[in-house]
Here is the input.
Amino acid sequence: MTDVATRFVDLTLKYKRWDEVKTLPADEVQVLFDTVSAAGFNPKKVAPGKLVGHYRDQDGSNTGETYPINSLCPFKVVSEEDGDNYFATGWLDCALQRAVYGSSRQNEDREKLIEMMAEEVERSVPLEPIQLTLEGDLLREYPPRTLAFGSEYFVKHTRDENDLGSCVGVHMHCNCWIDRRRATSTHDAIVCRGCHLRVLFPKEVKTYGDLRQVFASQRVKVPA
Here is the structure.
């Protein structure tokens, strides 16, 4: 994380006016790619471009008004499916703003910025998916929402020490919600709303770490 953070901070400090930057050499684009990769976004590439979001009415319809996703960073993040990754693009823009403005407005030195960036990259890595079945069904964390103010894409991710709620996350690949439900006097069940996957586990399980340990122990091969 420190190496990635160092290269990112050095790049941000190289240019005095990021609002005037239109393109970058390939090695500097690689720095941006490596940074969002280290933060857990799995990008296909980082490319020049600006993204906008759409304001919505209470009924969910577009108002016709937009807002910038990357107001400072001239690059957007492209997903492995060749689509624009809005969250990763917003995160990269927040990271660039934090380093640039931390230097110019708060007089933070290079070492302070590197330390901050390393911590933020590590904090941005999502929960490692939990394997639920021998066939490879995976539980992915409940997607975090952007914050209402400040660095809105610097969100808090689920960690192994967090308690399981009633909706515990998303069924990876199926992409439907997964719930925790009572099943028997001794076991609860992981149930997918989409494909109806149903997996039992002891009702004493409280955290994501507990759940991970239970399913990992079930996959251990017992010698004949």
The mean pLDDT is 91.
